[in-house]
Amino acid sequence: MAGIRSTYELLDPVAGSGQVYCPDFQATEGIYRLKADLSYEAIVVDSNTAVPPITQALAPPKYLSLVSVRFRGAQTHHLHPQHNNSLQPNTGPSSYPNTDNLPRPTLPRDRLKATASSPLSQSLPPSLSANPTDSTASEPSPGQDPAIDYTQSFPPAHSAAPASNNASTLTGTSVPAPLAAPQLPRKDTGDDDDSSFSLFQSMRLKKRSKSSNLTKKDAAFVSQVIWHDNLAMLLAQRPNEGTYFFYNSGRSFFWADLGHAPQEPLGRLDFYKAIPICHDVNLLTRSGSSLDVIIGFSTGDLLWFDPITQKRTRYNAQGVINASAVTAVRWVPGSETHFMASFQDGAVVIFDKYKEDHQHFNPLFAMDPSDPLQVAKPTKSKYNPTTYWQVSKKPITALAFSPDCQHVAFTSMDGRLRVVDYVTETLEDTYVGYFGGLTCLSWSPDGKYILTGGQDDLITIWDFYNQRILARCQGHQSWVNGVTFDAWRCDETNYRFGSVGEDTKVLFWDFSVSALHRPKSAAIQLRRMSRASSTFSPPSATTPLYTQHENVVHEVTPQSQVADLEPVMAQSIHRLPVCSITFREDAVFTTCRSGHIKIWLRPDTAAS
């Protein structure tokens, strides 16, 4: 088994170092300076570990999420969207800014169907009822050993190999400002930011004894859990606010503090055969005393993990509900207990963290094959899953909730983008891509547009409200692995987003609807259509091909009839394919297949 080792380079903003492929890159607003390059040595995936081909090809093996935590002060709890229309969802693993000033236009058709009697609202926990009350009761999760006191600190154990101590101290550099409750557009006073990267030297990790933290149920699943030698001291001395980040690589999952020695993980989980594919942090329940993290694996397992209380619970063990690999996972916005996971067989399953898995659940008996979105629920409500959807016959590659918390979008290997009304459980729109599978997606902060990237090397901008394709973006030379809106550079009319791909590049894109021009061939086609009989209209970018139940299928629009968009910046930033991009107020984070996390300071931050 590989030893525990991490590297952390503080880079000169101009000269860089031998390890760095690109020390900085130029965008329209200025130069983005590479300030840090993090790398953790994970348990390597060997040839004896069975990994589904689709997981190897599409699921980013290096996945990063950041969560800002206010350690002191009252925690605010919020309602599900049918009780509170001001909710702002978690549309990705990263934090999002306050979006009070972004427009909320009236939908051109009846999309908001949330009712108190809808199927999913009836299954909400008491804490999300119309009159919620804060609860601090520690209800045990299923699968935990009642004989174990999970509140006790780690007993002394053998130390793992010490981490590398060749890090320099970076002072006077502000790290990205954490956002308060990104699910909710509320005013926030004060910056919840860490002041600097304060690097502790000669800190070691210690292994917790398996008998005290591994239950019989997951003893064959988790190979070891390693905690920082001074974890209790670090947690006790933390400032009022801070930022944690979580990262999976190989067969390991890491937890680190962005503001204090990020090269020294606070905790690490290693797994025998399961490979962490994706994870998400519940931004509603985050606090200084607990964090709800859900991890999806190549084996189909899901693991709820609280790094602060050191508790964890396993779901879908040995594929009892779905035996295929997990491809994406998200906490349901506004819920303290429900999370959604997509699978390689095209299924989407909603779990409750306080429920046990149904041991004999067969969704095929409860599904109607004629429905475009097949829905099944267990006969006994005390078991998982709470809901089982069959969204596609091909692997789901990404999922994201809309900013109004009403819709959830999916991309899949059949080349389709599907938008589902989460509350009424109906498939509303299906958009067909240009070529090949779709691999990633992102909602705009105002909910107007959806980005998708795929195997056609293109990024497509979809107009969700007007049900049409807006533009295709050409700039990548290989598959697109990640797309994300930069909410700090979006306003009512102008939008910025970034993308990364197999070509090792990061691309920035700017667009406004008024500046996008339809190709001449499309204008000629529209004039011809206007002369035709009104009794027949051929398919176009704004006309759905056919309707089935409530599902509107929008077939592919020819390239000649769609506006083209070119990037405003393109730069190779890693030596291997780039897996993800995350925007923060002061910095941009990228990850690559070699296991590196790079932190790029924005121009205004680098200048200061």
**Distance N to C terminus:** 44 Å
CATH top level of the domain at 53-74 and 218-345 and 347-365 and 381-390?
A: Mainly Beta
Q: What portion of residues is helical? A: under 10%
Percent of residues in beta strands? 25-35%
Number of strands: 38
Coarse structural class = mainly beta
As for the CATH topology of the domain at 53-74 and 218-345 and 347-365 and 381-390, it is: Methylamine Dehydrogenase, Chain H
Provide the low-confidence segments as ranges. 1-20, 53-61, 73-214, 522-549
Mean pLDDT: 72
What is the overall silhouette? globular
CATH superfamily of the domain at 53-74 and 218-345 and 347-365 and 381-390: YVTN repeat-like/Quinoprotein amine dehydrogenase
Q: State the helix count.
A: 6
User: What CATH architecture of the domain at 53-74 and 218-345 and 347-365 and 381-390 do you see?
Assistant: 7 Propeller
- What about the largest sheet? 6 strands, antiparallel
Report the C-alpha radius of gyration, rounded: 24 Å
Tell me what the structure shows.
The protein is mainly β and 608 residues long. Helix content is 6%, strand content 35%. It has 6 helices and 38 strands. The strands form 8 sheets. Strands 1, 2, 3, 36, 37 and 38 form a 6-stranded antiparallel β-sheet that branches. A hairpin with a 5-residue loop joins β25 (438-443) and β26.
Keywords:
608 residues; disordered N terminus; 38 strands; mainly beta; 6% helix; 35% strand
